[in-house]
Specification:
Length: 123
């Protein structure tokens, strides 16, 4: 994966575009999340896509949307580490300011797709 593909991965994630995400996420992926409320076990690919759909619906119900803002990307062999911020954009009429939460993603690549995906959120 290159920087352009990583950018597209995050854009597809923000939109919940599972069809596009299938280009990047291996069918046998093991995806873990640390620091995400209510997530106690790893996801497989369909489980992760369901999680994204639920998260997007939740944000839409609050007139919010999320955007991944990768700040630093390190690609070394079959390992990619991304540090960035998850921006929670509030509705313009909201009395609250947008929120930015740090994340670190560690991706292991096999055959051009993510086979291990560790998300470390807000730690």
């Amino acid at each position: 994966m290159d920087l352009k593909q990583i950018q597209d991965l995050f854009r597809a994630t923000d939109k919940g575009d599972s069809e596009r995400l299938c280009k990047y996420i291996h069918p046998e992926v093991v995806l873990t999340m640390v620091g995400v409320e209510g997530v106690d076990a790893p996801f497989d690919r369909p489980g992760y896509f369901r999680f994204l759909e639920e998260s997007i619906r939740y944000r839409e119900g609050r007139n919010e949307r999320t955007e991944h803002v990768p700040a630093h990307v390190k690609i070394e062999g079959s390992t990619i580490v991304v540090r960035g911020f998850l921006k929670i954009e509030k509705n313009e009429s909201a009395e609250e300011a947008d929120e930015y939460h740090p994340y670190t993603d560690v991706l292991k690549i096999r055959d051009g797709q993510i086979v291990e995906y560790d998300i470390l959120y807000d730690i």
